Amino acid sequence: MNTGIYLIFFPFALIAAVMAYLISYNEWVRHYPTKKEPRKKALEAAAFTFIVFIILILFIIYALVHWIGK
User: Fold this and answer.
1) Are the beta carbons of 39 and 25 closer than 8 angstroms?
2) CA-CA distances (angstroms) from residue 5 to 41, 65, 70?
3) The domain containing residue 11 runs over which residues?
4) pLDDT grade for 6, boundaries at 50, 70 and 90
């Protein structure tokens, strides 16, 4: 497969993870007196979002290459 297509879609997963971190941190910081726990929960949300987006991107690339590309 062409690796250039991965370089096109990878920043979208990264942007989604950063946005998930910022949004969840902003929400969690209201519920805890210290900033340690909200950071941990926000990082978990960002990691989960990044993994989900990578899986979706891989599926989309597979679909584009094998099903539509024929």
Assistant:
1) yes
2) 31, 10, 17
3) 4-68
4) confident
In the chain, the amino acid numbered 55 is: I
Token code pair at residue 59: 């599926």
- Ranges of beta strands (E only) in the chain are none
For residue range 8-63, what is the model confidence (pLDDT) as tens digits?
788 999 999 999 999 999 999 998 888 899 999 999 999 999 999 999 988 888 88
- The number of residues in the chain equals 70
Look at the block and give the residue holding tokens 């690339």. 61
C-beta separation of 32 from 38 below 8 A? yes
Interaxial angle between packed helices 36-62 and 4-28, expressed in degrees from 0 to 180 and rounded to the nearest 10: 150
For the chain, the domain total comes to 1
Q: Which residue has the tokens 């250039």?
A: 4
